[in-house]
Write a structure and sequence with these properties.
Rossmann fold, 5 helices, 6 strands
Length: about 190
């Protein structure tokens, strides 16, 4: 498949960013995905993060207006996609989104830095979504992940006991995750 027919993939880390051994960062090196850098990884203000995402999407669409986009979001990045989708005029350009290990924003012990994310988006998102979760994520129960998937209209994929599906999960380049993205966006 040519570059013009495959979507431009944006990588959206969660709170505190993703380290060098995280599968997301490995994918940027392996596949040329674009990492969306946030102004402040430690104090993730919802409005700031949404504005930053809209800026990079608009810049990409100016360069390649006919090319679709896709999102690979981890943790809080998943809520960023949902929040962005409820506000952006560019949702029709999204081929799909792989949302991995979204935290439960309603959990009682949500860190104070994340309080601007406390009200999750509850409506169906206007593009295809796969939500990958594990059964032992310390930041989201399996039941809460199921509810997020229902709210967002996502296909739920349970990858077993893999914690927060991050570098500590031992996934390396996580080829199974990349296959999920390829299936979702219809490119191989």
């Amino acid at each position: 498949m040519t570059q013009a027919s495959s979507p431009h993939v944006f990588t959206l880390p969660g709170w505190q960013g993703s380290g060098a051994q995280h599968w997301q960062i490995r994918w940027t090196a392996l596949f040329g995905d674009e990492l969306v850098e946030q102004h402040d990884w430690m104090q993730p203000l919802r409005g700031d993060w949404i504005t930053r995402l809209e800026d990079v999407v608009q810049n990409q669409l100016k360069k390649q207006p006919e090319r679709q986009i896709a999102f690979v979001a981890h943790s809080l990045g998943s809520h960023l996609v949902a929040s962005w989708a409820s506000l952006s005029p560019n949702v029709s350009k999204v081929a799909g989104a792989l949302l991995v290990a979204p935290p439960d924003p309603l959990q009682a012990d949500l860190p104070p830095q994340l309080h601007s994310w406390r009200k999750p988006v509850l409506n169906t998102l206007p593009f295809k979504i796969t939500l990958a979760t594990s059964t032992n994520d310390p930041f989201c129960s399996f039941a809460a992940a199921q509810q997020l998937a229902r709210n967002w209209g996502a296909e739920l994929v349970n990858i077993g006991e893999r914690g927060h599906i991050n570098a500590e999960s031992g996934l390396g380049d996580w080829p199974v995750g990349r296959e999920m993205l390829n299936k979702l966006t219809n490119f191989n």
